[in-house]
From TrEMBL, chains A, B:
The gene is hisD. Belongs to the histidinol dehydrogenase family. Keywords: Amino-acid biosynthesis, Histidine biosynthesis, Metal-binding, NAD, Oxidoreductase, Zinc. SUPFAM superfamilies: ALDH-like. GO terms for molecular function: histidinol dehydrogenase activity; NAD binding; zinc ion binding. The lineage of its organism: Bacteria, Pseudomonadati, Pseudomonadota, Alphaproteobacteria, Rhodobacterales. Binds 1 zinc ion per subunit. Catalyzes the sequential NAD-dependent oxidations of L-histidinol to L-histidinaldehyde and then to L-histidine. This is Histidinol dehydrogenase. It comes from Meridianimarinicoccus roseus.
């Protein structure tokens, strides 16, 4: 059974604090192994990547077959059913429409001193998207990673998608094609991250790496951070549903299970202002678990990490929600906008009972790569912003330099940085000579 | 002597590639020591911070004196000369005016399906700014880190500034006061980063940590990344000046030295289309080095890592600049805007010979915390964006769900995520019942 908490109970604060800090993931310490793999790929390039792929994915590659050929992708795309293709195309169009609005604007202005200031945005030169293999090979993740990069105008976009035993997911390849990916490499793990960061004879290095992965991929991303940009180190998925009694318990139950089925470490929490409704939802979850295909995953997740929290009112729910800082937040209440306005920390908010979180995973438009493990306190979901960077611009005139230069010179001297001061002084002296 | 390269030489490509990849910094491997310090602060809180401060900074603190009192800050601010105060206030006002324009806008719209989509921005809950102690205690860095956070609306803003032997810089305390900092702790090193990330009995944890620091601080930031947000792992400073022959060689020389004086590992590069002018600048650098206060730092930096590159024309200069992806780029040419338009990767561009880079360090308005070590390929300088995060919003209507829900259901099934599909199907079934 999940935990049942009630804010009216004297032990609530202790229990809630424990829920917040519970360690859900026992990630193996693979850092040394990953360091070795990265060093190997840096030293031996393609040969190392090929050996490691044979070892981990039981797949023999050559430099020529590291990437899928266009013919192979054509053939895979042709195997996708028209219905699946249409669904993927609709998702792709809606995700693109949402992200199109995220492109930030350049700026330029002249201030009182006469200085012209501003900034401009430009795309990263190349991006590499990691797509996990096996069961967790999700075409939707290809769209969610690649489309923001494409909208940003990234000139070169590659995917690394391991294909254990050579088995590829045609929908992944179609999703890559729909979102402007140039090349799909059939490699994975730390060796793929190393190849993307440092390059090999065959694989050109990229500037930014995004996408989820296992402990090896996460450790490798942390290690290459700085050499390249990375998106985030993602943890297990989470959902918080705030629901009043005026909901169908079964709808809320399947919503909770839609996170629980991802991973035994996933966490699904219901906050309600009606304890009886909370019990009804828990009962509905048990009923659904009897037949759910992924009950072997969703069951342990719900029982080990799930929680039903009864609050006095929705204001209290908002306060608890900000302490949780959930990745996904569903507001199944009469006035979701009003409740949403009270909440500061959440990756994505789904407003009203007609907006199940799964809509956001596939087709709503917003990105489904979202901050986990309370990191919505300080970070955002994936967006176009992850694939652009800003160059600041400044142009002084002689008049502007005369106005502000002496203060810069003084501050430089106060920091004992004489050459900084001299670089301003040399110009001010010229202006003074000219004025004489 | 610095390196002299010429793109017309047959060996140029090899020499330039070596310049790009030269390892300038031999950061000691302090990762194990830092892991120990972080574990100690997590386990013992204040007691560990106080012991480590006594050990490393030779300063005895108590929980009550970890932070400067308001009286101490008042007294320090009163010791600042009116001229220094005026310079700091002008800098503060100009930096604030620039960053005020960076606040991103919320968005909300209704699409063809009837779905309401959008996002909103909110500040991180608390930010901790690290200000290195000793020689590198820069009040300008306090402004550059704290003002973007203040503009973002961060409700709690703290500074950690070590004071070895108890010596504090009054300008640092005044800069903190001018930029809305709530509390200044006189602690530093990995112990300060650990205290900011995990909190102690006295120091409340923050959500985001920014600011430069030594190898211990950098390693600690990398380790706590994920628990909190961090800005970047900064390396030694760099400047690239592109200058034609129509410049005063001495101006360019002091500009190059203004980076070289930061650090023996700093790098200053001149690209010019006139070899004779390049020689004149090198001569001017040597002349300035004879008397420069920090010649013991600037000299080795220039001789070990400096370079003068002669190019055929400015178009070639732009191509090389993008390969360097400089932190600071000065364009001292007749039409700097035209040259700037050809360049994609740079942290900050200074347009025209009247805009020495030092203006940007102090008073221009743009931020001086900028991507180093070629990371301008994929990252931006510090900005308001580092202190806000985005929550995406979606609200479906029954009609919108009817339009796009079946595709979401299909995609969920294709990914074997049945509960995702059921959460959409449960609602679609209700709509179908209602329609019958």
């Amino acid at each position: 059974m999940p935990q049942f908490l009630d804010t009216s109970d004297p032990g609530f604060e202790t229990a809630f604090a424990a829920l917040l800090t519970a360690k859900r993931e026992d990630a193996p310490d693979v850092d040394d192994a990953v360091a070795g793999i990265i060093a190997d790929v840096r030293a031996r390039g393609d040969a190392a990547v090929i050996e490691l792929t044979a070892k981990f994915d039981r797949l023999d590659l050559t430099p020529e077959t590291l990437a899928f050929s266009q013919d192979e992708i054509d053939a895979a795309c042709a195997r996708v059913s028209p219905e699946d293709r249409a669904a993927l195309e609709l998702a792709s169009a809606r995700i693109r429409a949402y992200h199109d609005r995220q492109m930030p604007a350049d700026a330029s202005w002249t201030d009182d001193s006469g200085a012209t200031l501003g900034w401009r945005w430009s795309p990263v030169g190349a991006a590499g998207l990691y797509v996990p293999g096996g069961l967790a090979s999700y075409p939707s993740s290809v769209l969610m990673n690649a489309i923001p990069a494409q909208v940003a105008g990234v000139p070169r976009l590659v995917v690394c998608a391991p294909t254990p035993d050579g088995v590829a997911n045609p929908l992944v390849l179609l999703a890559a094609r729909l979102s402007g990916v140039d090349t799909v490499y059939r490699i994975g793990g730390a060796q793929a991250i190393a190849a993307l960061a440092y390059g090999t004879e065959t694989i050109a290095p990229v500037d930014k790496i995004t996408g989820p992965g296992n402990a090896y991929v996460a450790a490798a991303k942390r290690r290459v951070f700085g050499r390249v940009g990375i998106d985030m180190i993602a943890g297990p998925s989470e959902i918080l549903v705030i629901a009043d009694a005026d909901n169908d318990p079964d709808w809320i139950a399947v919503d909770l299970l839609s996170q629980a089925e991802h991973d035994e470490s996933a966490q699904s929490i219901l906050i309600t202002d009606d304890a009886t409704f909370g019990q009804a939802v828990a009962k509905a979850v048990e009923a659904r678990l009897k037949t759910l295909e992924r009950r072997a995953i969703a069951g342990p997740s719900w029982r080990d990490f799930g929680a039903v929290i009864t609050v006095r009112d929705l204001a209290e729910a908002a306060v608890l929600s900000d302490r949780i800082a959930p990745e996904h937040l569903e507001l199944c209440v009469a006035d979701p906008e009003a409740l949403s306005a009270r909440i500061t920390h959440a990756g994505a908010i789904f407003l009203g009972a007609w907006t199940p979180e799964a809509i956001g995973d596939y087709i709503g438009g917003p990105n489904h790569v979202l901050p986990t493990a309370r990191s919505a306190r300080f970070s955002s979901g994936l967006s176009v912003m992850d694939f652009v960077k800003r160059t600041t611009l400044a142009r002084m005139t002689p008049g502007a330099l005369r106005a502000v230069g002496p203060s810069a010179e003084r501050l430089a001297r106060s920091e004992s940085l004489e050459a900084h001061a001299l670089s301003v002084r040399a110009r001010l002296d010229r202006l003074n000579e000219a004025a004489e």
